Each structure stands twice: as C-alpha cells, then as structure tokens.
Amino acid sequence: MIIYKVLPKYLYTSCPNYSFVDLKSTELKMKKAKKQDELEESLQRLQAEFENFKKRTEKEKRDFQGFANENLIGELLPLLDNFELALKSTSNDAEFTSGMKLISNQLAQILENKGLKPIKALGQSFDPYLHEALLTEVSDKDNIILEEMQKGYTLNGKLIRHSMVKVGKKNDNKTNSNEGDPGNSN
What is the dihedral of CA 61, 67, 72, 73, to 10 degrees? Predict the structure, then answer.
C-alpha cells in the first residue's frame, strides 16, 4: 500500500511532477480497486452459498421422493399381514395355499422394490428402537426374541412399524427359589 504525504502548497508550484490532481486520481483508483476486491469477494461468497443451496435442495428432493409412498405402504401392510395369517391357517386345498403364497410373494416383492424391508427379529437381541415387547417368557436366553407376533418394517432406512415380539427373560433362581415352597414360612 502506498502512503502519500500531503505536501505543502508551495511545493506544488515548485515541483511540476507533483500535482494535486495526480494525488487525487491515484487515491480514487485505490478506492475503486479496493471496492472491486470487496465486490469480487462478495460475489464468490454468494456463488458458494448458491451451490450449497442447490445441493441441499437436491438432497431434500431425494428424501421427499424416498418417503412419498410411506402412507400408501402403511395402508398396504395390513393386507400383507392378512395374507401371512391366511397362510398360517392353511386348509387342505393345495391350490388355495399355492395361490395365496404367490400373491403374498408378489405383494412383498412390489413393496420391497419400493424400499420396504422387514426387520429381522426372531433369535435377535431385543432392540427397543426396532422391536416392541408384547410378552415376556421365562427362558434360558435373556433379552432374546423368542417369537415374532407381527413383523416390523423399515422404508428406505426409516422405521415405519416396530416388530411386535415375545422376549425371553432369564429365570432368576434367587427370587423364585422360595416361591411356592410349602416348607418355607416367611
């Protein structure tokens, strides 16, 4: 940065190389250059903010598209459950059973193609974020899912229904050893 000294007025007349106009024009050029640098920096910031905005809106658009069918799939889940119940109570009619299995598999495939995934529960460790414990049963396996009452599902990685499960609880021999013992008088 060039620093200009204000020269006394008598030097302007004695030194023809220095003029008041030259100093003023140089000062104006410096101010313009500084202002231009500020404007360029501001433009670069705005461009970066706009790029970030575009990326953010694209992500929101993808998220919206991924979850747009959530209500529809939520309405179809009871239908899938009914197919599974009908298949559990199969009659002797083999054709009925094979037809029901075909329909159930087709529906499950369509939903899976839309991003629906069943939650694995049977034999897994109980996770309150994925499973809802309806029943507990004394078992040698503590906190392990013994039975799945109703399947849970995720849609594109988002939980839309918990698995309804029966969880095993370890038998505590210390508290249960005196219960029901007729010889024990507490």
Answer: 150
